[in-house]
């Protein structure tokens, strides 16, 4: 059992995560009502203000704080109790990240930062919003260094040994996060903050967006990899089997370090300021970053089949019926995986140069990220939440809460299916993303977006409403598990952190030689970005003044 001193920072992170989740999902409900013309916001509330809050609080804050709660819990479980120094830095990192979050959120709520979660220039927020973002990043770095410190202590005590798979995957994700953040810190600190406080009067827009997207695509893998850790390590434990292949799992994670960074231009394929060659190169590399996800799909299938056959599953698909469907810790993650099949396929469509012309800046992209972040990632985090909180608080995961959790997962699935399908179809019909209304003064094309059962804003609103109700049920479950559920006194009532065995006997030791992988990643980054970024700096067009359109 994790020591209470280690559990507290994890619980603190979970409380901030679900506070952000509560506000962010409420904003999402308002959005779908506005988009379906069912709601006019009061004068003092701007659509882009709630859209910014929705994106920042869910995509950036909920994910980050939950991920650190998961890492802290798992690293304590896998490598042993934290030393006092590590724990101090975990608390310091949590404090700085929280201060940054509060500062950015106050700027959004006070109407001084309706710039959306990608905060594209020349939209200009208050300088304090950008300082909040910078503090949020620095705080996560402090937490990262604390966990790396814990890992180094373990490695010193276990010379020549491969680290446990959970630790290896955590360190991989931390390396990816720190290298990715260099881009967003560079643009926020050296471009946005001086510009927002008026120390310089213009900003190089193309450079700021390119540095953001250098960060923005690996950001999605910062969200995805903790979910993959659950797929590789926790699902096999729930299935009563072990990790399918330790070396394949480690290789898949290393491929994310190599290929997550040189691909950001695939978010900028329609932008005029980048030469086609560099876009083409980064699209090719994007198809490389798909490979570790396909390796993951193979591993997950194999794990299911091995465990199902061990339980007597016969014939081609008999193993399928032997999976633990009544265990909400498994079913939630299984449904999360299912969503990732179309979610990932949609990513491949987005990355295709020609098809991107059709879908970019439409609701299709919004549909894509709701079935990537909003389902595989978020539903895996929900599935982890159901046992992680009782594990941390020493409370029980009662039968009644398990039943509520199943209802919550099923309603989330239905709501997400409706909303995201409508968004994909509306996007193909040409409906743009990030617009406060959809009627366009009754234009015939826009009116098309209100017809057809699965291709209209009303379906999106129905799906969004179901999602909101499911989110409120989840908040109740979280509060119950944190504060109300009975304390587990008997051994049988205690909730364990399910970590599967992983056989490292055939795993090559060089997989854990981080400097090789960091070196190759840096080479790929230089190859993909050095020339186009230097061109954006040397041949910069006149910078842009700030636009405050709200
Ligand atoms: Fe994406 C835009 C391309 C994955 C999130 N993406 C976004 C945005 C977000 C986002 C938030 O190329 C919007 C940003 C904004 O606001 O503008 N995306 C990709 C590609 C992948 C990808 C190639 N995206 C993600 C993930 C996300 C995420 C993961 C969050 C967690 N995305 C793009 C592009 C754009 C984009 C362009 C810009 C579009 C534009 O023009 O603006 C790949 O990583 C996808 C690889 C994954 C697969 C699927 C593998 C399937 C698996 C599950 C198998 C399940 C099993 C279960 C086996 C190929 C691993 C068992 C099942 C049984 C039936 C038994």
Describe the protein's topology:
Elements: H1 4-35, H2 47-79, H3 84-109, H4 127-157, H5 165-196, H6 205-238, H7 246-259, H8 276-289, H9 291-310, H10 318-321, H11 328-351, H12 353-359, H13 363-370, H14 373-393, H15 399-428, H16 444-448, H17 457-484, H18 514-538
How much beta, percentage-wise?
Answer: under 5%
The tally of structural domains comes to 1
* Ligands present: heme-as
The low-confidence parts are: none
Measured between the Cα atoms of the first and last residue, the distance is: 51 Å
Structural class: mainly alpha
Name the assembly state. Answer: single chain
CATH superfamily: Cytochrome c oxidase-like, subunit I domain
At the fold tier of CATH, the topology name is: Cytochrome C Oxidase, Chain A
DSSP strand count: 0
Q: What is the H/E string?
A: HHHHHHHHHHHHHHHHHH
Calculate the mean pLDDT score and round it: 95
